[in-house]
Design goal:
Elements (H helix, E strand, L loop, with lengths): L11 H18 L6 H23 L4 H11 L3 H15 L7 H12 L8 H30 L1
Helix pairs in contact: 1-2, 1-6, 2-3
Length: 149
């Protein structure tokens, strides 16, 4: 499905696209030769940071975008290893808790900044995060389509 161009240049998709293309240019101009997996990580991190900064510029009240930006500032190896361990643990569904509590905890860990939120606020943050991720995927698909021609 094609993304409709937004008439407002300050809305999320155009703002994300501008920031992401600028970040991709910076990554491509980098003189450092890296492995494909390291390059993929840099592109993913750039996409996450661009999405969060565009979302923060559009709606500064969202905790997930602030959490993503805060997390992106700390790029130490120790934190990366901790995040990888956390992601593996998140994938395992808790079996000892009740189903609803387990799902709420899983959602808290999936939404950046979701730990410590009340359930209603968590659902609002998750909805906004999903909407922003959808916009990110659509913009990146448009970029990929335009580069493949």
């Amino acid at each position: 499905r094609r993304m409709k161009p937004s008439r407002n240049p300050n809305s999320l998709p155009p703002m994300f696209a501008r920031r992401f293309l600028k970040a991709l240019t910076t990554i491509n101009l980098s003189r450092r030769r890296s492995a494909v997996s390291a390059r993929a990580r840099r592109i993913k991190q750039a996409a996450d940071v661009c999405l969060a900064s565009a979302a923060a510029a559009c709606n500064a009240k969202r905790a997930w975008s602030r959490a993503v930006l805060k997390r992106s500032r700390a790029v130490l190896c120790r934190q990366r290893r901790r995040q990888l361990r956390e992601r593996r643990r998140i994938m395992a569904v808790p079996k000892s808790e009740s189903c609803q509590q387990g799902r709420a905890e899983l959602l808290r860990q999936l939404v950046p900044g979701g730990v410590g939120m009340d359930f209603c606020g968590l659902l609002e943050e998750a909805a906004d995060y999903i909407k922003s991720l959808k916009a990110q995927v659509q913009v990146m698909q448009c970029i990929a389509d335009s580069l493949s021609c």
